[in-house]
Amino acid sequence: MIFSNHPGVFMKFFLGTLALLGAAQTLSAAELPAREPLSSYELKSPSEDTLQKVSRYFEIEGREGSAYRVLVPQAQSGLLHLLAPRAELKELDTAATLRRRLATFQENASLVAPGGYHDFTAVQGWLNGKAEKYPGLVTIVEYGLSAGKRPLRALRINSDDRRAKPALLITAATHGDELITTEVLMSLVDTLLEKNGQDPRFTRMIQDHDLYFIPVVNADGFAERDRYDYGQDPNRSYPYPNDPARAPTTSIKAIISFFEEKKFAGSIDFHAYGEMVMFPWAYTYDPIAADAEAKLDGITSSMAEKNRYDHGPISKVIYVAPGSSCDYYFWKTGSLSVAIEMGRSKVPSPYQFPAYVESQAESTWRFIESF
Asked: What confidence score (pLDDT) does residue 22 get?
């Protein structure tokens, strides 16, 4: 327990770790560091003090009642046990568990829904296919490159470029292992396009909005089936009011520039899992301005009416989470930003795809119609 006896040693260790993570963002694709395995631990009924200490250094991935799932780089397991001695190991290597799960789906393909999960190349093919099928309505926008030199791309649906209308952004796979979010987003886009001109509700949504969809935010993590962006949590790398100089990952830096360029009036960031629809603040228990809170509470209440998700400020619904997309977009642009934790699994069986899509469909349509 060297850290408990010598807090200065602990601080040097922690700052050194941060420096290494930051340095990784400046390397060329050939020099990018090897990915460090993540372990998953469970904290049962932790005290508020323990929870706050753990969340300062590690990502709290999810919550089930009073039990919290914490993701910890394997090399830092000792630090977790220093902060939370009762933490229980659930998965030694989360990426390896994910690969085994996908392999099982593939082996049992005849028993589940056809298609399975899209890989990064297949997502690019889907994007290109939509632009080819719906010329004049769908365009593909490349807004940057990942650290690994993969294209960062958005699908835009706009029926009339000459008309001023609110721009909205819906994103998925900020965490590269939350594969269901990409499948749901792609299915929602398919429905929008297929029903345009056939169903007045969907026709109005497209006519009255400038819609952007990003199926994969964290391209490198998604391609490697890795949650993080070369060791750094992308959804804790956004600057926020208490840390305005925080350095975002390469993928997040690109989407920040894109967001500020397009001046999106509202956004949804899809995550998994937890069955929650939330809004700022995430970094503090303090409320946002009353007028904005009233708007976002009304929007999320409507979104949660059918799927019965919990709703409210992120810090109160789940936990304090500094450095999130939701906080940054609201803080910097005034955008009405929403974060959704869908379902009960990051990678459910493909047989469950329709149920996951159904859980988000009405919620998403109501969000769009709020603008």
From this structure: 41
- Pair of tokens at residue 130: 């939509």
Q: What is the pLDDT of residues 181-236, one digit of tens each?
A: 999 999 999 999 999 999 999 999 999 999 999 999 999 999 999 999 998 999 99
- Whether residue 49 is contained in a domain is answered as yes
Q: Where are the beta strands (DSSP E) in the chain?
A: 38-44, 59-64, 67-73, 88-91, 138-145, 151-157, 167-171, 210-214, 266-271, 276-279, 310-313, 336-341
Q: What is the mean pLDDT of residues 253-278?
A: 97
Q: Yes or no: say if 102 and 119 are a contact pair by the CB < 8 Å rule.
A: no
Burial of 87 (0-12, 13-18, 19+ CB in 10 A): buried
**Claim to verify: residue 325 and residue 262 sit in the same structural domain:** yes
Cα(first)–Cα(last) distance of the chain, in Å? Answer: 54
DSSP state of 321: -
Q: Name the burial class of residue 16, with classes exposed (0-12), middle (13-18) and buried (19+) by CB atoms within 10 angstroms of its CB.
A: exposed
Same domain, 208 and 332: yes
The domain that holds 251 is classified in CATH as 3.40.630.10
Q: How far apart are CA 173 and CA 180, in angstroms?
A: 8
Question: In this model, does residue 20 exceed pLDDT 70?
Answer: no
Between 28 and 234, the more confident residue is 234
If asked whether residues 267 and 148 sit together in one domain, one would say yes
Report the C-alpha gap between 294 and 313 in whole angstroms: 11
Residue 101 lies in a domain: no
Q: How many domains does the chain have?
A: 2
Half-sphere exposure of 25 (CA within 13 A, CB side): 19
For the cut 50, the answer to whether the pLDDT of residue 108 exceeds it is yes
Q: Examine residue 137 and state whether it is found in any structural domain, yes or no.
A: yes
What are the tokens at 208?
């009255």
Confidence of residue 56 (pLDDT cuts 50, 70, 90): confident
What pTM was estimated for this model as a whole?
A: 0.88
Q: Which domain holds residue 190?
A: 115-369
